[in-house]
Amino acid sequence: MHLARRTILRLAAGAALLSPVSRAALALDYPTRPVHLLAGFPPGGIIDIMARLIAEWLSQHLGQQVIVENRAGAASNIATELVAKARPDGHTLLLSSAVNSWNTAIYDKLNFDFIHDLAPVASLVRAAAVMAVTPSFPAKTVPEFIAYAKANPGKVNMGSAGPGSGGRWCVLRRPCALTCALCKIWI
Question: What is 2-117's CATH number?
Answer without folding.
Answer: 3.40.190.150
